[in-house]
Amino acid sequence: MIVNIQKLNGLWHLIVGSCKIRTPFLETQDREWVVAYARRVYPGARVFERD
Q: Domain of life, per the record (predicted)?
């Protein structure tokens, strides 16, 4: 499974397939927190950052 991380409207979002899932993290917070959250929610997934 591939999970993309993207900043959108001031929040970090996880993009899994065609679904955009809003995370509880603001855009100003560290990307490492979002990556840890994504790995906890989707264990074994590959995580990428999109611009």
A: Bacteria
pTM above 0.85, yes or no: no
Dihedrals phi, psi of 25, to nearest 5 degrees: -105, 135
What is the distance between the alpha carbons of residues 42 and 14, in angstroms, rounded to a whole number? Answer: 10
Rounded-to-integer distance, Cα 25 and Cα 5, Å: 11
Encode pLDDT of 3-51 as tens digits.
999 999 999 999 998 899 999 999 999 889 999 999 999 999 999 987 6
Coil, strand or helix: which one is 31? helix
